[in-house]
TrEMBL record:
It comes from the Eukaryota. GO terms for biological process: early endosome to Golgi transport; intra-Golgi vesicle-mediated transport. This is Trafficking protein particle complex subunit 10. Coiled coil: none annotated. One of its GO terms (cellular component) is TRAPPII protein complex. Residues 16-328 form the TRAPPC10/Trs130 N-terminal domain. Residues 663-692, 704-733 are annotated as: Disordered. It comes from Hippocampus comes. Residues 802-957 form the TRAPPC10 Ig-like domain. The keyword Cell membrane does not apply. It is found in: Golgi apparatus.
Length: 1283
């Protein structure tokens, strides 16, 4: 309190500032409570709700309590917040009414008058109830509440909460603690309200001032002081983020004015910052506030560097408070670069080298400030944030060394010394904060500029430190760039041996990443270094690379090309090192862009002519004449094939353009090796089922490897196919392999750009030839491409003759002449005169001789000649005489063959082909891809060039599918034949015939009276694709019809177009008809009830069924296929009849089935009466009548019991095998005992069997008859009541 009283207006711009609270009234009372009040006030946080929708924050309020004086009250126009009293408190412990009226009331009135006169409305009256004062004077003591009420009535009016009571503040009791808590809460609330109100008013005034920046007379420096006042307040409240925002806004505003100045929109106040820079002492970050620069800004005399330095120092302080030191480094690096540009933009006069000094000192100052607040482990782990400053400081120190003559070989001159003195003078005196430090930036810079040795020591120290940091964090590009700068330093010092490794490392990095301009620049430096070191071959390689570099001018390229040609034209002297032959990389001289084979295709037969066309892109700026161009080839004879199949995948043209990027960098270095993909399956261990499937890269460690992060030793070397134009390290001499096969060309002129060179390739030996190396010789210089990649190969093959037979059109149809194509690839065999092919064919596929058959001889698809072909055909063998043909030609001819359609299932005896193999009759089979049946016909061909026979198979398709059926009309028999066209062609049918197959009957006689009477049209018939033709014949015979007939159906057919008489082919179809005669006839008649003309629904009707025997069984056959004996012991046959109605039109009443015994000789008829009932009216079809064979059990096999005999009318239908499985058996009634099948089989009783008759053996005359059924009479009476 004493210090506050002595210097009430002292302002310290630091974080220790607190909001000012004035105290009036009883100072002794306040002094006794000050310690407790100051300690307890900031303990509890308060929520600070700010305006404009900003997020609320929790803050701890502190206060600077000072004695109330009227001088502390703000004057009109005062905008300072740090000296602004936010709250005024009046302290009193008065409990005497006389004392209150005489002194306290008047004192409070004066205090409030002063506050009102200065517009201050934030006040509070605290009445302290100590208890000791009442004991001293008890006569005039009034209750504390009375004094408080008087004060509230006199001064508070409507603000009763502005007067609070503090009870027993010095006692340790619950009442005292509660009173303290109430007071502290009121203080925090009022202080925060006052603070928010006044801060909001200040921000509005500041915003109004900023909006006036376009008006004349507006000053950025004045506005800077106002907004910095706001930043100080935030810092005072420990809201460092908000304070940093204020400085960032000022920084952005100032930067925008500088940019506008560069665009032509200059502000008048910016002229003060364009004054010459007289001091470049660097940043000062070791003080919380640099008062010198702040005062300069307040006076308007600060330079651009002063403004930027002060702004950054304040930002740095706040970032350190926020524990974000690494952001300081990023901002510092950005600041240093921007300041250099802003000085140039504002055209501020600066002494040469002054900015380098300022940047160097600032970098080290920032680094020292970061080191002071972080330990070594943190610095090492975050070197990526500081390495930029180390590298920038190194670069500026090198610039200062070059400026002051400390890098040259001769040392600094007098002019350099004068410049050094001027630069050191601009640094001024060392600051007190760094005077005691031995490694201060000031001392380092002064020492480095004092001598060549000190400069070299400091420069190498900084350079090595920065390079190690770059390597540690994996930024190898930056490390190599810094190493290149160090190499330039060594070159300027005349130490090329130190610079060579650094330049080589940087050059490899630039080449791998495709930086064309840095490659060119570094390569020139490399050439100078190699010349100084006396390495002629390496220097020659570099000169060749530079001669082909398009980034250089034509004069420079011509100069480097002259160096190469001069060396190539020097005479060879014995023992002369300079004139020794040099082998250089091809990538420096020319680039192989394409290899093309002539003729097209990289596969030829042995002895064929083959040329290789090489397209070379010469990189030299002038035309050169090569003494020799050679291509080394390698023959792999172990994998020589007998045909051209091995070389079919070889390309005829190989382009190499994609192998090199535009920057001169091989693309293989950028993309890495191609990924090797493979399938990956994950199976369940329990049942081995597939759980998942995917793709895995087997060489992922190579594909995703960072090529730029490898060490210099691991850098990619010369890629296959193109020499890597590295030229950094000494090139390894390359040469063609001795003894290798060569394609050579001599005295070849190469112009700049693409050149075509044609060489003849050897093809005498079969095998695969690989082009491996390329060499171009110019005098003493030999340019070699050690590996040609992608691999370029051509294949020379020796092919065996091959004979193929294929249809001329698909599919081959049986029964018609079809043309097949024979193709003979002669291979290495020369067809001589007299050579013939021997075809062994089957009887089912004769070869049709054609007198006009010719053979076509071609080579690679182009016709060479045509010759007549001699074909001699016999039953077994067909001989084809071949015309002479040279090797590796194709001989083609056509032959017609005819595959006979098989007429039936009969097979002939096995025959043998001429080669001894068994000849089998071809069988037709169903083909899965078509509805036609297929027949495979095999043939054996004996060739003159081989002792083995060639087996070939031709597949023919039968265009027809033939079906037959037997139809009956009483005793008359009709045979129907249906021909289906299952092919895609249309045919014409003619001469359709059906006849009995010639042959004796079973009794050895011939049947002369059988006649097939055709009921078909005599004209030709059209049979379209996927359509059918039906033919019908009636079989008549003067005698009885035989039990079976073997028939032959024949027809002539030909394609619809073209059509001529000779084109008709004969088609046979054999089939067998069994059980031809009609044995029984069934006639049914419906009899209505007596007195009725028609049947009525619901009434019983009589169904009269007559079963008549029409024919006897054939001789040698038992009755009804093995009949039996009747009940009287007479021979005869038994049939089972059954009446059923599956359509539910009739109800069978009584017995619906029974056995009928027929005598074994003569005609016989049996009549059966069955009662049925129609269920519906209308024309109803007759009930279905079935007649089945009754086959009794075999008594010789199982002897049944006497009790198990089945009566005629008690047969169970469980054993019947009927076609209609859904027949209704519910109406079958049994008059005897019927046992189940399972029970009878258990007792060993064999049941009779029922079989259906064959089609045509039973003819039902009433099958399609209908009967008229009238509705039943309706005798019901319907009573209708009407109301």
């Amino acid at each position: 309190m004493d210090s506050a009283e002595e210097k009430p207006a002292a302002v310290i711009y630091a974080m220790e500032n607190k909001p000012i609270v004035t105290c009036a009234g009883d100072q002794a009372l306040f002094t006794s409570l000050y310690t407790s009040l100051a300690q307890q006030l900031p303990r509890e946080p308060m929520e600070w709700r700010r305006t404009y929708g900003r997020a609320p924050k929790m803050i701890h309020l502190e206060a600077n309590f000072v004695q109330f004086k009227e001088e502390l009250l703000p004057k009109d126009g005062t905008k300072a917040l740090l000296t602004f009293p936010f709250l005024h408190i009046y302290w009193t412990d008065c409990c005497d009414s006389e004392a209150y009226r005489s002194s306290v009331k008047e004192d409070v009135s004066r205090w409030q008058s002063s506050l009102r006169s200065h517009g201050s409305a934030d006040w509070l009256i605290i009445v302290v109830d100590g208890g000791d004062a009442r004991k001293k004077n008890k006569s005039n003591i009034l209750p504390r509440s009375s004094i408080v009420d008087k004060i509230r009535g006199d001064f508070c009016n409507k603000q009763n909460d502005r007067c609070v009571v503090l009870s027993d503040p010095l006692k340790d009791s619950s009442r005292s603690q509660e009173s303290w808590n109430s007071l502290l809460l009121k203080l925090r609330t009022l202080l925060l309200m006052s603070f928010t109100k006044n801060l909001g008013r200040f921000e509005d005034d500041m915003r109004t001032l900023r909006e006036k920046r376009t008006q004349p007379g507006w000053s950025f420096c004045e506005y800077f002081m106002v907004q910095e006042e706001l930043a100080f307040v935030f810092e005072m409240l420990q809201q460092f983020e908000d304070a940093l925002v204020q400085y960032d806004e000022l920084d952005a505003l100032f930067t925008q004015y500088v940019l506008n100045f560069g665009a032509g929109d200059a502000a008048k106040w910016l002229g003060s910052f364009c004054s010459p820079v007289l001091n470049w002492s660097g940043l000062l970050l070791r003080r919380p506030i640099d008062m010198e620069k702040r005062n300069a800004i307040q006076r308007g005399s600060a330079s651009l560097l002063d403004m930027r330095s002060y702004l950054f120092s304040r930002q740095c302080t706040l970032l350190i408070f926020l524990q974000r030191p690494w952001e300081v480094t990023h901002r510092a690096l950005e600041l240093l670069h921007n300041c250099v540009q802003e000085l140039r933009l504002l055209e501020v006069p600066v002494l040469e080298g002054a900015l380098d000094c300022w940047v160097f000192l600032s970098c080290l100052e920032v680094l020292h400030r970061i080191e002071s607040c972080c330990d070594r482990a943190q610095l090492a782990a975050n070197s990526s944030h500081t390495v930029g400053l180390w590298a920038y400081a190194t670069d500026k120190l090198k610039s200062l060394g070059q400026l002051c003559g400390l890098v040259s070989r001769t040392g600094p001159t007098s002019e350099d010394l004068n410049r050094t003195v001027d630069l050191l003078a601009g640094l001024g005196d060392e600051r007190p904060e760094t005077a005691s430090s031995l490694q201060s930036p000031y001392k380092k810079l002064k020492e480095a500029l004092s001598s060549v040795e000190a400069f070299e020591r400091h420069y190498l120290e900084l350079c090595q430190a920065a390079m190690e940091m770059y390597r540690a964090i994996g930024r190898l590009r930056s490390a190599r760039l810094l190493g290149k700068s160090l190499a330039e330093y060594y070159m300027s010092k005349g130490e090329p041996e130190q610079a060579e490794a650094l330049l080589a490392e940087a050059l490899r990095s630039y080449v791998c990443e495709g930086w064309s301009f840095p490659v060119t620049h570094t390569r020139k430096q490399m050439g100078e270094c190699q010349k100084l070191l006396g390495r002629s071959v390496d220097s020659l390689q570099t000169s060749a690379l530079l001669a082909g570099d398009t980034n250089l001018t034509t004069e420079e390229r011509t100069r480097f090309c002259g160096d190469v040609l001069n060396y190539a034209g020097e005479p060879v002297e014995q023992g002369g090192a300079a004139s020794a032959k040099a082998s250089l990389d091809m990538g420096a001289f020319a680039r192989l862009t394409r290899i093309r084979f002539r003729p097209d295709g990289a596969t030829v037969h042995s002895g064929a002519a083959l040329q290789v066309e090489l397209t070379l892109r010469c990189l030299m700026p002038a035309a050169v004449r090569a003494d020799e161009l050679a291509v080394g080839i390698h023959l792999d004879a172990e994998h020589a094939s007998k045909g051209g199949a091995q070389g079919r995948g070889l390309p005829g043209t190989v382009d190499f353009e994609a192998a090199v990027s535009p920057a001169g960098r091989p693309a293989s270095l950028s993309a890495g090796p191609p990924p090797e993909m493979d399938e990956a399956h994950d199976r369940s261990p329990s049942d081995d089922s597939l759980s998942s499937a995917g793709v895995v890269c087997k060489n992922a460690h190579l594909v995703i490897r960072r090529h730029d992060s490898g060490s210099p030793q691991d850098a990619p070397r010369t890629p296959r196919g193109h020499a890597a134009p590295i030229g950094a390290a000494p090139a390894t001499p390359v040469a063609l392999k001795e003894g290798a096969r060569m394609l050579t060309g001599r005295r070849i002129a190469l112009e700049p750009g693409d050149n075509s060179v044609v060489l003849t390739a050897p093809s005498d030996e079969p095998g695969t030839y690989t082009l491996r190396q390329l060499s171009v010789t110019l005098g003493n210089v030999n340019f070699v491409l050690p590996h040609i990649y992608p691999s370029v190969q051509y294949h020379v093959y020796s092919q065996e003759p091959q004979l193929t037979v294929q249809p001329l059109a698909e599919p081959l149809l049986a029964g018609l002449p079809q043309t097949v194509k024979f193709t003979l690839l002669t291979g290495h065999y020369a067809v001589r005169k007299g050579d013939a092919l021997q075809l062994s064919n089957s009887d089912g596929m004769p070869v049709l001789a054609n007198a006009g058959c010719t053979a076509r001889i071609s080579n690679s698809g182009a016709a060479v000649s045509e010759s007549a072909l001699s074909v001699q055909s016999s039953d077994k063998v067909t001989s084809i005489s071949l015309p002479p043909a040279p090797p590796y030609h194709a001989l083609e001819f056509h032959l017609e063959v005819l595959c006979l359609i098989p007429s039936g299932p009969e097979r002939t005896a096995d025959e043998r082909l001429t080669n001894g193999e068994v000849r089998h009759r071809p069988r037709s089979y169903s083909h899965p891809d078509t509805a036609m049946s297929a027949i495979d016909q095999k043939m054996s061909i004996d060739c003159p060039w081989s002792i083995y026979s060639t087996l070939l198979t031709l597949t023919f398709h039968i265009p027809f599918k033939t079906e037959h059926s037997l139809l009956s009309a009483g005793n008359r028999k009709f045979i129907r034949v249906c021909v289906h066209n299952v092919s895609d062609s249309d045919f014409t049918l003619a001469h359709v015939k059906l006849a009995e197959k010639n042959g004796p009957r079973q009794d050895g006689r011939r049947r002369a009276s059988l006649e097939m009477r055709s009921l078909n049209a005599t004209a030709e018939q059209l049979l379209c694709s996927k359509r059918s033709v039906h033919c019908l014949w009636e079989a008549t015979c003067k005698e009885d019809l035989p039990s079976s007939l073997e028939c032959v159906f024949s027809a002539s057919f030909c394609p619809r177009r073209p059509r001529h008489a000779a084109a008709f082919q004969l088609f046979h179809y054999n089939f067998l008809l069994d059980k031809v005669p009609t044995l029984y006839s069934v006639r049914a008649n419906m009899l209505p009830l007596a007195g009725e003309r028609h049947c009525r629904s619901g009434s019983l009707c009589g169904l009269e069924v007559v079963i008549a025997r029409l024919a006897e069984p054939a001789e040698g056959q038992p009755d009804v296929d093995g009949g039996g004996t009747d009940a009287d012991g007479l021979g005869g046959s038994k049939v089972l009849y059954e009446v059923a109605d599956s359509s539910s039109n009739w109800a069978v009443c009584g017995r619906s089935s029974g056995l009928v015994s027929m005598p074994s000789s003569g005609s016989w008829a049996h009549k059966v009466h069955i009662e049925v009932m129609p269920l519906f009216a209308g024309h109803l079809p007759f009930p279905k009548i079935k007649v089945l064979k009754y086959l009794p059990h075999n008594v010789n096999t199982i002897q049944p019991d006497a009790d198990s005999q089945v009566e005629n009318d008690s047969l169970s239908l469980l054993d019947k095998t009927l076609d209609d499985a859904t027949a209704d058996t519910a109406s079958v009634r049994s008059r005897g005992s019927v046992q189940s099948l399972g029970e009878q089989q258990h007792r060993g009783v064999a049941l009779p069997r029922l079989d259906p008759f064959s089609p045509g053996q039973v003819f039902n005359h009433s099958h399609a008859r209908q009967v008229l059924v009238l509705p039943a009479n309706d005798d019901h009476i319907v009573e209708v009541h009407a109301t």
